[in-house]
Amino acid sequence: MRLSRYFLPVLKETPAEAQIVSHRLMLRAGMIKQTSAGIYSWLPLGFKVLRKIENIVHDEQIKAGHIPMQMPTLQTADLWRESGRYDAYGPEMLRMKDRHDRDMLFSPTAEELFTDTFRSYVRSYKDLPLTLYQIQWKFRDEIRPRFGVMRGREFYMKDGYNFDLTKADALHAYNRHLVSYLRTYERMGLQAIPMRADSGPIGGDDTHEFLVLADTGESEVFYDSQITDLTFGDREIDFDNKDQCQAVLEEFTSRYARTDETHDAEIFNKIPEERRRVARGIEVGQIFYFGTKYSEAMGATVQDAEGNVVPVHMGSHGIGVSRLLGAIIEASHDENGIIWPEGVTPFHVGIVNLKQGDDATDGACAQLEAALEAAGLEPLYDDRKERAGAKFATMDLIGLPWRVTIGPRGLEKGVVELTSRRTGESEELSMDAAVARLKEIYAKHPDPKGL
Ligand code: 5CA
Fold this sequence. Notes:
BirA Bifunctional Protein, domain 2, five-stranded mixed sheet, single chain, alpha+beta, binds 5'-O-(N-(L-cysteinyl)-sulfamoyl)adenosine, Rossmann fold, nine-stranded mixed sheet, globular
């Protein structure tokens, strides 16, 4: 992509309405545009990151054995009356009527619709276990939408629903989700800590929220500092192996980590004082086990091996896909702009031409662009007739993790300059060596396949 042909409406001024850095940077970098309170247009750069994040979520869900599908955003109120949530949900649910005066709503979550789909087709325990999921727009008429995509009214969520014969099987599904979420967040360069939480309107007793530590987070969290030493890393996991998944759950919940909703000062104070942490966090996901709450209310049953008709055990599992952009930026930025982790960057590398219009530098930039593309990488080439300083400022703002700068002086020596956005360190090397280095870096962060 060439910047002269792209649509990247960066802002010079810092937007006054944005209170936190991720919101400011997403507006300034031309990633999103507010269209009304808590509702955003996703401009090309923001859309590109959103898609990458979505595709990582798909990759990891599919690896865990979960099956993607898509539900409508508009649903009939009748389904929600069956579960009792139509009246219980309150003003966060956006309700509307169609032309026949039928009550409709914009889905804030989809337990009812997935349970209805299940009961329409599945009759036998032999078809279990089953986990279906979607990545779809949700609407919650939040009383205080704020912080950009962090607390939107319309937001993009992955929501998954497991259907199992027994509680033990459903808890294995819970653990599978926990493992797949740890992998998902790490692939995005994030540490998200599972913390015991409250289940709210979804219901059930077992629930963990995944929190990214950040001063601007909306949740107060209490944890033992040893929990932050844990990483999932590149270990192998067999998602069908109950013991393996249970062991990961036990490991990642072996230290005190709770949100304020479930915080217990008595237990917390038993941790050695130097390890006690009170901080803030951004909730980027939540997993629930709620047993037969929906299956009993809605008649989602199967025949077991003895021929008894029994309600299935269920849970639901969410990832805040659009919120993740904000969380990643909160965790990874500096005073000049965003610093994308390699796993989610919208373009792999920026090319800055220091002397636009000069045949030799223009030619070298085009050559590098072609070589990077041939290596399977996606460069963003700043080919505008701008000062070098303005080009660097744009690159720093939009946060591509690597930049190659090409100018006449370097070309005389046969070198280009490769700069890391994170460290600011530069190195001069031949064009071929720069391509080889970038290829090597991104071999560790393959682009998600997605669906
Ligand atoms: N049905 C369950 C699991 S699929 C559910 O709705 N869970 S949830 O309410 O916890 O939402 C899942 C995730 O969506 C949250 O962890 C959070 O990351 C994200 N989320 C929730 N509300 C918003 C919002 N207003 N704006 C942006 N993201 C949100």
